[in-house]
Amino acid sequence: MKLSTKGQYGLKAMISLGVYGKEDYIPLKQIAEDIDVSENYLEQLIALLRRAGYIKSRRGSQGGYQLAVDPKDITVGQILRALEGSLAPTSCSCEDSSFECTNHDKCITQGVWIKIRNGINDVVDSIMLEELVSDYENIDKGEN
Amino acid sequence: MKLSTKGQYGLKAMISLGVYGKEDYIPLKQIAEDIDVSENYLEQLIALLRRAGYIKSRRGSQGGYQLAVDPKDITVGQILRALEGSLAPTSCSCEDSSFECTNHDKCITQGVWIKIRNGINDVVDSIMLEELVSDYENIDKGEN
DNA sequence: TCAATCCCTAGTGATTTGCTTGGGATTACT
DNA sequence: AGTAATCCCAAGCAAATCACTAGGGATTGA
Predict the structure, then answer these.
(1) Could you tell me if residue A29 is inside a domain?
(2) Which of A13, A72, A73, A141 is most exposed, with the fewest beta carbons within 10 Å of its own?
(3) B63 touches chain A (CB under 8 A)
(4) CA(A44)–C1'(D13) in Å?
(5) pLDDT tens, N- to C-terminus, chain B (144 residues)
């Protein structure tokens, strides 16, 4: 029942971009240093977030990445689902339900999995990226 | 972010034992048939639940398994944690915290993981095994 | 005694994870 | 126009984990 490192690094990348703001495009290299992960791997995670419409990019020299949305308009849940897929604990409790329980009316436990899924979504959709960005900025202030 | 089949089969095994009640010891074979899983695999899952004190066993002829607790005294959360370990989404958010974040004061995201963990635990600890057992019994009634 | 049952450990093929590698396309700057 | 900086993309791969299987030992009731 663990999140993969995609969710962990990817969310940190979004926080990092949130801190930089929207004036410049930040190169991959810099974000990778900030959150201590290899550039090549981070690139793949950022691609997921870009395809989801949460990050925009500019190629070439002076290029880089930037948030495509305002941190107060996006939830941690949106970010994690873009990176990890559904946060449901079983395939039979995914939102799209393309994987249905074979014995769907007799499956007692499916109700449990759906409650877990809803519980997770409630938590992560109640946290805006903005909150984490300002947490980060406050810690920096406190330490210097 | 998926539960393993341990949690899924193990919880079903507990429901099955709950339905049988405490008069007889139910042999592994019968439980395995009920929930459609191999005996050898189920045996390993039941061993986890036995070591956690939730199932008792009798060896030898006429032996088998039986709940060691009343279904109204045990939560789905206790069962899942016995099978899966902590339901925390990262090792740095486990209850025992033997895996600490290396950069523990600067880690912004740890707060998110702990909220997810608590959200999951709240859901699963609010469901008693008894509820699932009676759901099962009601479905059987409805179908025959 | 012996058949039924639980108990335990080791092995194993398939899948997923967490990357690395390497080449191509685009852009700013000179 | 050339070149360095950067993003984009797909393939490959070692290690870990998952979901079992296999098989032998211990215990108990008839």
Answers:
(1) yes
(2) A141
(3) no
(4) 17
(5) 999 999 999 999 999 999 999 989 999 999 999 999 999 999 999 999 999 999 999 999 999 999 999 999 999 999 999 999 999 999 999 988 665 666 655 688 999 999 999 999 999 999 999 999 999 998 766 555
CATH number of the structural domain spanning residue A136:
1.10.10.10
Q: A65-85: per-residue pLDDT in tens?
A: 999 999 999 999 999 999 999
Query: B20-56 burial, b for 16+ CB within 10 Å, e for fewer?
Result: beeeebbbbeebbebbebeeeebeebbebbeebebbe
Instruction: Provide, for chain B, the percentages of residues in helix, strand and coil under a 3-state DSSP scheme, each rounded to the nearest 5.
Output: 60, 10, 35
Decide if A125 contacts A75 (C-beta within 8 A). Answer: yes
| Number of structural domains in chain B | 1
Nearest 10 degrees: CA dihedral of B75, B127, B18, B27?
Answer: -60
CB A65 within 8 A of CB A25: yes
Are B90 and A120 inside 8 Å of each other by CB? no
Q: How far is the CA of A47 from the C1' of D21 (A)?
A: 40
Nearest to B108 by CA among A144, A135, A79, A126: A135
Report yes or no on B105 lying in a domain.
no
What range defines the domain where residue A9 resides? 5-86+128-140
